[in-house]
Amino acid sequence: MKGRLFALLRFCYLLKENFTLHQGTLRAAALTYTTALSLIPVLAIAFAILKGLGAQNTLEPLLQELAGDSQETITRIIAYVNNTNFKSIGAIGLLTLVITAISLLGSIEVAFNTIWGVTETRSLQRRFSDFLSVVVVGPILILVATSITTSLQNQWMVKWLIQRAYFGDAVLFLFKLAPYVSIWIALVFLYIYIPNSKVRFRSALLGGILAGTAWQVAQWAYFHFQVGVANYNAIYGTLAALPIFLIWVYTSWLIVLFGLEIVCTHQRRKYIITHLCTDNSSQAAFEEHALALMIQICRNFQKGGQAPVAARLSSELSLEQDLVQGTLEKLAELGYLVLTVNSEPGWLPAREPSEIKINQLLSALRGNTESNGTLPAARVLAGEIIRRLDECRRVSLDDMTLHDLLADKNHDKTDSPAT
Questions:
Q1: Whole-model pTM above 0.90?
Q2: Residue 15 and which of 155, 268, 282, 350 are 20 to 30 A apart at CA?
Q3: What is the pLDDT of residues 185-201, one digit of tens each?
Q4: What domains appear along the chain, each with residue ranges and CATH number?
């Protein structure tokens, strides 16, 4: 019991530290600003699609579900959306509208990738196609979900079950649970689909359930216990609904980003704990991982394969993706790797493998170990032993390069080629 409690407290501590490190409050504010700019274009496109399906009336109930009792704000938003005339704005205007809508998803992707520590982004073509599919398919899914709920409520079997003593309470409970399940599914979808990283379903499900439940509770609390609304009305007058709505959007993004931190921390908990319990995750292990990454990338480069991304290298070398990502960035900082800016970003050696000496690579990874001050005798002796070991390594490796290592058939047989 104590062990589980300690693990829970440690998990909460890691969540707090990661949320602070990734500037969660600042990113929520930025997403609130982007949402305010992109909301009308997104809803206009959604309304146009739903109108084409003959279901435009489903948009307002959805906004009421998301925005609670801000009826004045909802009415104004619907009015703006209804006033959008796609015929009068022309092709360029329509394209601008679509790009503005997609930019919101792009901002969400950047925030999600930052929390995951991912520097590689999707290609522009893939981002456009993926995000456009979300904008187009989203309203259709909303229509399907709304239709299913409405049709179930009207089915005679459901009505009959509601009238039964025991089944009625269960059915009513399921209908009350439906909003929670819908937000859980939406968040799990976002947590898996948006980041340019491999996300485990179990971690995404945990984050989606916790964040979705927190969002529903926050919504109930916010619109039943609004504090200071009268003061807002006195200050802003008829515009009081706007700051109240923006506060709710900001709160929603805080919950969504914190839920993503739950997903990220849960998926990487073993690596984080190991990293915290060891000194810099062991210098020897760090050098081994860096050398393995260089070998894999250079081997792929010599065979003319596509530049690999961190997720692929993580899978090929059976290493945690965040560990791989951090090591790749360190190698790039030292000038041994570069990140391509092609349609599909990936990692390539910064120079020919024949010019990369293993001794120099390992020395660069180790950094400057010299000390400027006077050290105790024991540390001086220990340092001398390490220098002797380094000298033995230098003599053993001589001037071997990565090209020489890859040309060794015995080493090549120990690993499968990159695909």
A1: no
A2: 282
A3: 888 888 988 888 788 89
A4: 2-272 (no CATH), 282-412 (1.10.10.10)
